Amino acid sequence: MTFQKSSSTSSIFHMLILWFANVLFCTDGLRAEMGTTPNLKHIVIGRCYSYITLVCPNSSYDCEEIWREFEEAVMRKSRCNVKVKDYKRMFHATPQTLTCGKLLFWSKTRELMHSYAAVTRRFWTLEDTLVGYMFNDLIWCGQEEKDRGFDFNSCPDWSTCVNHPVYSLWRQASQNFAAAACGNITVLLNGSIENAFNRKSMFGSVELDSLNPRMVDHVNIKVVANLEGPFIESCTQGSIVDLINVLKTRGFRWTCTDSDLTLMILQCIRNPQQFSCLPCANSLLHRQRLHL
Questions:
Q1: Which phi and psi angles does 211 have, rounded to 5°?
Q2: Can you name a GO cellular component term (predicted)?
Q3: Which amino acids are annotated catalytic?
């Protein structure tokens, strides 16, 4: 049976796909403005209360204290001189126990990773932790001058600072996340780029080295390429092989797949007209017509 776009059933089916894709994939992305995110304090404290009320209602964090410690770490310091250790007191105020066997790591697969976690409901990402939830997609930097507060006009790029205030926080958050990993963990990497496993990425430079082989049973690597390609890296070629060698050297057990069906379906939901998605779309349409 062919995919007849002219039929009313097909049109309804196509509209449902587009709606579902918008729900899963519609994100604003990182803000283009370079200054501190406006209303930063209200956003961070509001997200904290949302987290302890809706996400983890059994937790008992002091949101006001967390903000004070965060503010103390950033304020009145050079925009390029906020070190990881400056956030020590803030992280001390946000301890969190993570469930074994549910942690999902990623690199260059941000959008698909969040959809994968949302659909499967099996994983926790860094952005699902309290710190990740509070600071996701936000930008901040202070000013050295006394009592000047945050700089809402401009903040430096990560690449221009060794001790960038945003990078330092995420570096410590990533290290804590990986150090807490236990049981089976999953790593989602992009097979359509060179160096899918990049030693300079947050996963390659911080999280991988923080994993404990005595606590982690298996590292499950999932390589996913764009539906239209290019198909550059896989479990048997490119930097993924380097990652596997690192895991072997450190004593981790591992698996690797570059044909995960769930990931492909998620990609097809977003782009159902792709040639590789037509068999799946035809099958779904056929099932739908059988129940009409």
A1: -70, 140
A2: plasma membrane
A3: 100, 182
